[in-house]
Specification:
By secondary structure, this protein is of the alpha+beta class. The chain contains 17 helices and 15 strands.
Length: 619
Amino acid sequence: MSQISMSQISMSLALLLSVFFLFLPTGGQAQSGRALDLTQLPVKLMLGDDPAYADPDFADDDWKHHDVFAIGDRVARDGGLEVRFYWQRIHFDGAALPVLAKPALHIGVLVSGNILYLNGVEFARVAMQEKPFGGLDAGNDKGMPRVFAIPPNLLKQDGKNVLAIRSVRGALNASILAGPVEITEESTALSQSHGKTLFFVLFNSLSLFVFFLAFLVTLIVWLVSRETNGLGWLVLTFLTLQPHFIFNSSLALFLGLSVSPVIFPFLTANLAALSLVPMLEFSARHLKIKIRWYGRLLQLALLLLPFIPEVGSDFLFPIRRIDSLIWLVFLLLTFTLITWWAVRRALQPDRRAYPVIIGATAIWIGAALGLAGGDQWFYAKTGTSSGDITVPLFLISLAWAGMQPLFEARARLAKAQSEVIEAQEYERRRIAYDIHDGVGQWLSTIKLNLQMLQGQHRDGSVAQGVADVVCHVDAAISDTRRIAHDLSPAMIEKQGLIAAMQSHADVIRSRAGINVRIEIEDEQESGFDATSEGHLYRIYQEALQNAIKHGRATDIRVSFSRNGNQFHFMIKDNGTGFDTNAPSEGLGLASMHRRAELLDATLDVKPVAGKGTEVVVAR
């Protein structure tokens, strides 16, 4: 895995998708003259719950008037957290309706927890459970476009009509109702809602894809690495959040994926709340902070939350009223601590803190958006909350942060290997110079003395003996020069890579009688620094040696081309080929691969049994 990790790719993809999809059109507008737009009529609002509010004859003159339909957060501001139910009524004249063959109520975005009445008769409900689950968010609460067929006998075409909507607020979720809200032809409503539905599902699916991609990358890295860097805690964070992202999603709603209302709150609320614990543990380990007493307090509070009863009803609901406040307080404290820790580490400076700061920034932007009321706009545009985007972004940033120690360890290993190779090259040059200047000079002196001795003694047997010794010394001098050249070809430093390659090819031709053809696209200098030229030469040298020694090649073709900083270097022979997976005691191939990595290039060895081998180095 490169420094540009999968987590960084996922984060970039999520950000781009969020910006791109946020400003796409999300549905058509009502067509004038073919629908009655209810958002243009006054809406009456009452906090509380009473079945009599559905009666069309109920006196609602003292109800609060709103210009548009109310949503859950507005109700919370008006009535406080204890208000979980509220009713809205709208009066309209049937004579204002166009002629409709199959009338239907079309709502642009509606989440769960709503029952709709027309003239006192219930004709639709969205995930509103009966007792003992009444009032529970026991089903998927994602917003979706809704089309409800209206029975013809309920709609008074020539009289007064009353549409009443009973809504329930979840402890943390508002009951969203956004336009268009209109009575129109059923076929028209369906055609308008289908496009928006697919958009919502696609947007949510992409968010899920990014979430699970980050999870899989984190899981794989955790399983294959033996580092104790806290990635296990991050994997546990992903696992505790998975049920929420799976079952409480537009995709699950579209596919009809659901679970029993008995366990739904536990899967989507309790586990999601418990994710704060491993999230905090990972952040503390990664940033090298001691949690101390706060971690234990957080664990205790989250474990007790499901058992805080609500007097009167809905004991099973995991996060309600006072417990929702407790959870929100701990949520705020946890993210404040993580942000504070990351900022402190970043000021030291510590690069490991930077991804955490980026993720925490996304969370705080989402929180600010919610406080400013922008979350309702986001919900109406995408069918999901901003948290379904910011939380995966935060987790991706933590995954990125958790992988940084592995990247750093790999960088340290690469640096150490590079230093080893540099030290090896230095020793080769030193030994080559010692051989050339030491042993080589002594051999040359011995040869000169022997030649002088040969001139002084003309006796046949002595002269022949001296001549034989001179031949042996000549061979020793030649071998000494060849060894010195192989250890450190001085021609690279003096005349460059191409000349050194030609020289080595000449040596192989003369010594082994093997045809080596070199094809250079540009006869000028290679343009690389001395270190890079040294790596390329060693790869070339090792490839030729393998072709001769292992492949028993008789013909070798070498081609080299370069375009700017890019190059293509190929060595192809007609030998017997070999198995790259076969065990080998040598380090030749490993050395070639390591040198290619130092060149930021790829090395591809393609042996074909009986047909030779092709070695390609490219960048």
